[in-house]
Amino acid sequence: MDVLMPQLGETVAEGKITKWFKATGDAIKPGDNLFEIETDKVSMEVPATTAGVLAEIRVAEGAVAPVGAVVAVIADGVSAQSGAGITSPSPPVSAASVRPASSPAPGAAPPAPIKLDPFFEVRTPQRNYGPARLPGGTRVTPLARRLAAEGGIDLATISPSGPHGRIVARDVEAARAIAARPAAAITGPAADKITALYRDVPFEEVPLDGMRKTIAARLTQATQTVPHFYLTADVEIGRLLALREEVNAAAPKDGESSPAFKLSLNDLFIKAWAAALQRVPAANAVWAEDRILRFKHSDVGVAVAIDGGLITPVIRRADTKALSAISNEMKEMAARARQRKLMPEEYQGGSTAISNLGMYGVREFAAVINPPQATILAIGAARRQAVEAAGGGVAFASILSVTLSCDHRVVDGALGAELLAAFRRFVEQPVTMLV
Questions:
Q1: Residue 51 covered by a domain
Q2: Please, which residues have CB within 8 angstroms of residue 212's CB and are 6 or more apart in sequence?
Q3: Mean of the pLDDT values across residues 147-159?
Q4: 191 exposure class (CB count in 10 Å sphere: 0-12, 13-18, 19+)
Q5: What is the pLDDT confidence band of residue 77, given thresholds at 50, 70 and 90?
Q6: Are 352 and 139 in contact (CB under 8 A)?
Q7: What is the CATH number for 234?
Q8: How far apart are CA 67 and CA 310, in angstroms?
Q9: Is the pLDDT of residue 89 over 80?
Q10: 86, 25 in Cβ contact below 8 A?
Q11: Are residues 364 and 250 both part of a single domain?
């Protein structure tokens, strides 16, 4: 039985095998960990689902293979010593020489689906144009499959817009139109030309890993295809600081019957942003090419810096959760994000995002929207500032600047201003977001 490189999310096209737990000739039982893979977002262990003997390893440790590629073969057998059922093993090869499972030899029947994990299923795409599903269960219409094959479009990179989440012809046509854009419009100078500018300057070349490549591609796409505009406001956070101090003083401590927690300012910003989106539901939306999707609940992504890049775990239904639940969930997800242990469903999707650089002393900045989301809130550092008091005198207040980036296709200027004003009211009167 062929073991395939699994699909770990709709946007993941390849994975790197970082470790093999079994060697050629080892007996395999269902549930045994075969290998560890790393994508641009996560790393995880892949278990076996069938018994047998590891007859062949086709992708060596450190090699990258596309989703659906055959990385190993498990044969029927009872032991490594007897050799029963074992084919002659081939030496490990690099991903460059791996034949993806989506391109079987002429006349060969495609292998059956192999379930590698309860969270996903890898299926080998059929060579005909009949109805089929992509990894993850996405359905594709026959016409869309034919158009994709003719245009050389990878169906796994397309967001479906058809009924019941199907990829239809218009989705493929849109992808073909993007692919047909002149390369000069989306690429810069060649690497050798840039390097030549610094030939007399000492430097170190740092190869791009999968995460950095994905970040570069998505940010380039966002800045070229999303019409951004920005709104900035100053927010007084004195009452929010007082609420945080009071809640933390009364919160359960370790060893008590209730779960312990300690609120950060970011936890309160998540709650306030989720409440603001509920107050202005027209802005709780994403762009879906030929339509806008508006959501009932506020699923808030929070940017977390990790080694080599960043990831945005999503707090689902943040509008319905208590501050203590948001705080503990955010801490737990941030810890696993730094270990690259998040599952795709924990960082994909979301209706909006927050990026907070205040802890680095950044006073104000504008964040780039993560498509298909239509908004992202950038939060700067708090500062003490002189303000006019109610009696006409001067007082000092804790102020921070926030900048809302909007996709103008979804959020117009007035709507964005209304959303930012709602956030400001919840922060300046925090008790209102708790009722």
A1: yes
A2: 308, 309
A3: 79
A4: exposed
A5: low
A6: no
A7: 3.30.559.10
A8: 23
A9: no
A10: yes
A11: yes
User: Which of 56, 61, 53, 52 has its CA nearest to residue 89?
Assistant: 56
Whether the Cβ atoms of residue 13 and residue 154 lie closer than 8 Å to each other: yes
Instruction: Evaluate if residue 280 carries a pLDDT over 70.
Output: yes
Q: Which residue range is the domain that position 402 belongs to?
A: 213-434
- Buried/exposed 120-155: b ≥16 CB within 10 Å, e otherwise: bbbbbbeeebeebebbbebbbbeebbebbeeeebeb
- Judged against a pLDDT cut of 60, whether residue 25 lies above it is answered with yes
**Number of domains present in the structure of the chain:** 2
The CATH number given to whatever domain includes residue 53 is 2.40.50.100
Helices (H), 109-168: 142-151
- The reported pTM is 0.65
- The 10s digit of each residue's pLDDT in 336-379 is 999 888 888 899 889 999 999 999 999 999 999 999 999 999 99
With tokens 């080599």, the residue in question is: 308
Q: Which residues contact 96 (CB under 8 A, 6 or more apart)?
A: none
Distance of CA 29 to the CA centre of its chain: 32
DSSP H helical ranges for 106-236: 142-151, 169-179, 191-197, 210-225
Given a contact cutoff of 8 angstroms between Cβ atoms, the answer to whether 327 and 335 are in contact is no
Catalytic machinery residues: 408
Distance CA 117, CA 6 (A): 9
pLDDT band (50, 70, 90) for residue 179: low
Task: Tokens for 404, please give them.
Answer: 């809302």
Residues 424 and 319 grouped into a single domain: yes
Question: Rounded distance, CA 59 to CA 65, Å?
Answer: 7
Question: In this structure, are residues 238 and 213 in contact, taking their beta carbons and an 8 Å threshold?
Answer: no
Query: Looking at the structure, do residues 330 and 219 belong to the same domain, yes or no?
Result: yes
